Amino acid sequence: MTGPEEVRCMLMRGGTSKGAYFLAEDLPADPAVRDDLLLRVMGSPDPRQIDGLGGAHPLTSKVGVVSVSDDPEADVDYLFLQVAVDRPEVTDRQNCGNILAGIGPFAVERGLVAPADDETSVRIRMLNTGELAIASFPTPGGRVDYTGTAEISGVPGTAAPVVIEFPQGASPLLPTGRIRDVIAGTEVTCVDNGMPVVLIPAAALGVTGYESPKDLEENLALADRLREIRLEAGKLMGLGDVENTTVPKLSLLAPPRDGGAVMTRTFIPVRCHTSIGVLGAASVAAGLLLAGGVGEGIADVTEQSDRIRIEHPSGFLDIETSVAPASGETAPVVRGTAVVRTARKIFDGTVFPRSAEATPTPAPVRPLGGNDGSAAR
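The line above is the sequence of 4-oxalomesaconate tautomerase; the predicted structure tokens follow.
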């Protein structure tokens, strides 16, 4: 397949991820040609992604594609694409709330949205799910200001806050219709508050939930259990065969250690996230508020009010959310969700993809219970 020899591109950090941001008009319209181009831009398949922009990890091998929206409730459309590191694969089967943090600023930078005086709000339709988000960020003097005092765990230093609000979505909070399911002999809670997630007590899998991501990834018995749970959960959650997809995410729960609501270890699907994805955290937070869920007796939400602090390997992430409990025939629903992220423009210019004739042979990698675990949200 062939595509343009050079492409306008902006590399941005969005939350705790990093990705290449493109205007849809700058990429081929044919998805197959587009995906082939993006593999060559990112340097996949190659465990080091040495010949492209990718950072040799699912969290740094991401793409955001942006265009003006024809939806009257949105200003721009955002398509998230996960580029696998070790496989020649690009998928749109999930969303990414971290890359989402850069979409509003990118839309202003590219002239898709006119900046307001001191703060601009951009209404974003997330094409992967059809759901909406509103991102607000400072634009003094009509220019995006990336400097500020907001801190997020997993990112050094400070930056301007990007406040992202998620209106109530159309997807049911409980995809299986039940607060608890028994999958592969393990009690779990399956939730979807923007990201399909399976909540699992860490102790039920023979781990503490405080291990390092590296130690958990090297636990092959755990990898096998997680794969079994994920494949069965995918079917129960209406996602079909998830063998080669990155959803649902799996979040192990343990009691908090640093004043939060819960400690988490999240798998994407077999790589253990060094923090936690925004939308995954939103689903975890909503799941903790469900009476009778597996978080009961593990999480401490008594003092959290509508702000739920999710602890993870590199710190914490605060999610503001509330859940209307089930009443009669009415299932529990999320009233709304918001989170503070940061983003930064790293470079803006032209990227030159690897030649289509120079497709490498993927280096062999040791399997960890299934596929290689392309990225998190």
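Note on the example: The helical segments are 31-42, 97-100, 103-109, 213-217, 220-236, 278-288. Confidence is low (pLDDT under 50) at residues 362-377.
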